[in-house]
Write a structure and sequence with these properties.
Blueprint: H1 6-18, H2 21-39
Helix pairs in contact: 1-2
Organism: Streptomyces armeniacus
InterPro entries: MFS_trans_sf
Protein name: MFS transporter
C-alpha cells in the first residue's frame, strides 16, 4: 500500500464515487501489484553475501570525539 494515511483517503473517495465494491477492486489491484513486484525480485538464497568494499580494520578506524 502507498502508506497508512493515503489508503483510507483513496478508499473513501472510491466508495463515494463508485460504491463499496470499488474498495475491493482497489485492494485486489494493490495485491496483484505487490505480487508482481515480489515475483520480479531476484533470488539471493544461494548468493554469497559479501560487502563490495572491504571495511577497514578496527585499529585503522577513526572515531570522532564526542
Amino acid at each position: 500500500m502507498l502508506g497508512g494515511a493515503v489508503t483510507p483517503l483513496i478508499a473513501t473517495t472510491l466508495e463515494d464515487s463508485f460504491g463499496s465494491s470499488a474498495i475491493g477492486y482497489y485492494l485486489a489491484f494493490i495485491a496483484l501489484a505487490s505480487t508482481l513486484c515480489t515475483l520480479g525480485l531476484r533470488d539471493t538464497r544461494d548468493a554469497e553475501m559479501v560487502t563490495a568494499v572491504p571495511l577497514p580494520a578496527a585499529e585503522d578506524r577513526q572515531v570522532a570525539p564526542l
